[in-house]
Structure formats: structure tokens, C-alpha cells
Amino acid sequence: MTRVLFVCLGNICRSPGAEGVLRAKAKSRGIAVAVDSAGTGGWHVGDPPDDRMRAAALDRGYDLSAQRARQVSPDDFETFDYILAMDASNLATLKDIAPPGHGAVLRKLLGKDDVPDPYYGGEDGFEHVLDLLEGAVDELLEEIGS
Ligand code: 4NP
């Protein structure tokens, strides 16, 4: 079973969305994955995903209501096969805390591009984030499902 951790800044918008999208798409395709998400920051620990992300995700059939924010930890590098950052800042923080010699694949979810932070923007930003996440998760499932 492949274990995947998505990481953003607050763990209330982008990475919880990615978690919900991967869980649903993997289930519908019969691919075994363990999926979780975390934030580099700790401000929202214990909180459910942002209302705007929950609503936008639910419209597409992804129920994020059981998810709660947590902060990423160095132990995550022992637990997960893939640690996928939403943007360059998240990736830099992860590289700073990664234990030397860890075996996880650590990269940005979109490769070269960032998933933009929608927190201070409008509803459109959440739709754009979900569009990006759905495309990236399809590609990820091609990689880990084969
Ligand atoms: P996320 O969005 O990293 O996609 O969860 C944010 C959520 C909260 C904050 C920043 C970004 N914040 O500053 O509280």
C-alpha cells in the first residue's frame, strides 16, 4: 500500500482538498493508498477544513468533514512514501525538517508549478485549486497504481 502525505501551510485549504480528492479517486479505481495531510504551520491544528473548501469539495462529491488539521513532523518522513508539497515555500520548509537519509519521495505535487494559496482570495480560487488537485491526483494515480 502506498502512503501519501499532502502538505500546505495551514492544512485547512489545499492539502485537505488533495487528501479528499485522492481518497475518493483511489477508492473508485480500486487502488490501495493510505492518505493524510498536514500543514507546515500550527495555527489551525484541530480545526476542520475551511468552510469554503469544504463546500467547493462537497459540490464535486468529496466529503472533507471528518478531516482535522495537524502540523507536519519529522516522523512523517518515516511513515510516508510520498510527501507532496503544494508550493515552493512548503517544500523549502519540508526540506529543512527532513531527517537526513529519509526514504520518502519529496517534491511539489504539480512538479514545476505551485498550487496557489486560496485563503485570502474569493470562491473562484477554491474552484481553481480543486481543478489543479483533480488533474494532479489523476497523474499521481497513474504513477502509483501501475
Ligand atoms: P492552506 O491555506 O495552506 O491551503 O491551508 C492557508 C490557510 C491558513 C493560512 C494560510 C494559508 N493562515 O495564514 O492562517
List the helices and strands and how they pair.
Elements: E1 2-8, H1 14-29, E2 33-39, H2 51-59, H3 76-79, E3 82-85, H4 88-97, E4 105-108, H5 123-145
Parallel strand pairs: 1-2, 1-3, 3-4
Helix pairs in contact: 1-5, 2-5
This protein binds 4-nitrophenyl phosphate (4NP).
Question: What do these coordinates show?
Answer:
- It is globular and about 40 Å long.
- The chain contains five helices and four strands; from the N terminus they run βαβααβαβα.
- The model has no long low-confidence stretch (mean pLDDT 97).
- A four-stranded parallel β-sheet has the order 2-1-3-4.
- The longest helix has 23 residues, at 123-145.
- The protein has helices spanning 14-29, 51-59, 76-79, 88-97, 123-145; strands at residues 2-8, 33-39, 82-85, 105-108.
- With 146 residues, it is α/β, with parallel strands linked by helices.
- It binds 4-nitrophenyl phosphate (4NP).
- 4-nitrophenyl phosphate binds at residues 8-14, 43, 117, 119.
Low-confidence stretches: none
| Total count of strands | 4
Note the run of SSEs as H and E.
EHEHHEHEH
Q: Class by helix and strand content?
A: alpha/beta
Proportion of strand residues: 15-25%
